[in-house]
C-alpha cells in the first residue's frame, strides 16, 4: 500500500457514530450472510447511516478497489480497535459474519454498561451540584452576616466561625482532591505509555483495581483469538504469527510474539504460557488440559468465556460499590453543612 493510503487509514474521524455502529454492523452481517458482496452491502447501508453519503460511498468504492480489507475499512470509518482485531482474525479463517455478530453483542453490552453507569452517577451528581449551590449561598449570605454579629459581640467565638467556614468548603476540598487525583493519574498513564510494552504491563498490574481488570481482559482476548484460529484449522505457529502481526491490539501482539518465540525454540504452548508473566494464572491450566485432550482451541474458547464472566462480575461489583460511595460523600457534605450552620446559631443563642 502507498504511504498516503496508510495515512488515510490512521485518521479517526468517527464517520460512523458510536451509537449507530451496532445497527450498522448487524445489518452488514445479515447482508453478508445472505450472500451479498462487501461492495453491494456497503452500497445498501451507506445512505441510511452517513450524512455525506455520496462522499462516503465514493471513498468506500475507492478503498475496496485498492484491496482494502473489511477491518481496514471499518478502521477508517471509526470503529474502535478493540473490535477490529476480532474482524482481522475472522478474515483469516473465514468467520467474518460470526465475528460481526459477536462484536454487535459486545458493543450493545458496552453501551448498556455505560448507560447503567450514567444512571448510577447522575442522581448523586445532581445532589452534589445542588449542595455546591447551597454551600455557596450559605457562604455568600448567611455566614458573613452571622460572622459580623458574633464578632461585634464576642471575639472568642472566631474558632467556631473558622470551623464553619472550613465545613462549608467541603465540596471545594473534594473537587480539589478529585482534580489532583485526575492530574496525577493522567501523568502516571502518560509516563507508562512511554515505557516498553512488557514493563508497561507489569506497572499497570500494580495499580489497584485497574491491574486485575486489565489482566483479565488481556487474557480473555488472547485466549479467544488463539482459540478461534485454532478452531479454524490454523497451526499454533501460524496463529501466533497472525496475532503478533495484527495492528489493532499491541498488548495482544506483544504476548503473541513472546509465545511465538518460545514455540519457535521447540517449547510447547503450555511451557511458553507458564513463563509468561502477563497472562492470568488460569491460562496455563486450560492450555495444559487442551494439549492433553487434543482440543486446545475449544479449551481456550472456554477460558475466554470464563474470563468474560469474571470481567462482567467484577464490573458489576464495582458499579454496585460506586453509588454507595457517592452517597456517602454527599452525606458527609450534608453533615458538614448542618454542623456549619448550627454552630453559629448555638453560639448566637448563648450570646443572647
CATH architect. name of the largest domain? Up-down Bundle
Average per-residue pLDDT, rounded, comes to: 82
| CATH fold category name of the largest domain | Receptor-associated Protein
Q: How far apart, in Å, are the first and last alpha carbons?
A: 87 Å
* Residues in β-strands, percent: under 5%
Provide a short characterization of the protein structure.
By secondary structure, the chain is an all-alpha fold. It has helices at residues 3-9, 21-33, 38-49, 53-65, 70-77, 81-93, 96-153, 158-168, 170-193, 197-205, 210-231, 236-245, 250-264, 269-274, 282-293, 296-351.
Describe the structure.
The chain is an all-alpha fold. It has 16 helices and no strands. It has helices at residues 3-9, 21-33, 38-49, 53-65, 70-77, 81-93, 96-153, 158-168, 170-193, 197-205, 210-231, 236-245, 250-264, 269-274, 282-293, 296-351. Helix 7 runs parallel beside helix 16 (296-351), helix 11 (210-231) packs across helix 12 (236-245) and helix 15 packs antiparallel against helix 16. Residues 1-12 have low confidence and may be disordered.
Quickly list its features.
transmembrane; mainly alpha; T2SS_GspF_sf; membrane; 352 residues; elongated; transmembrane helix; disordered N terminus; Receptor-associated Protein
Fold blueprint:
Layout (H helix, E strand, L loop, with lengths): L2 H7 L11 H13 L4 H12 L3 H13 L4 H8 L3 H13 L2 H58 L4 H11 L1 H24 L3 H9 L4 H22 L4 H10 L4 H15 L4 H6 L7 H12 L2 H56 L1
Helix pairs in contact: 2-3, 2-7, 3-4, 5-6, 6-7, 7-8, 7-16, 8-16, 11-12, 11-16, 12-13, 15-16
Keywords: Cell membrane, Membrane, Transmembrane, Transmembrane helix
Membrane topology: Multi-pass membrane protein
Family: Belongs to the GSP F family.
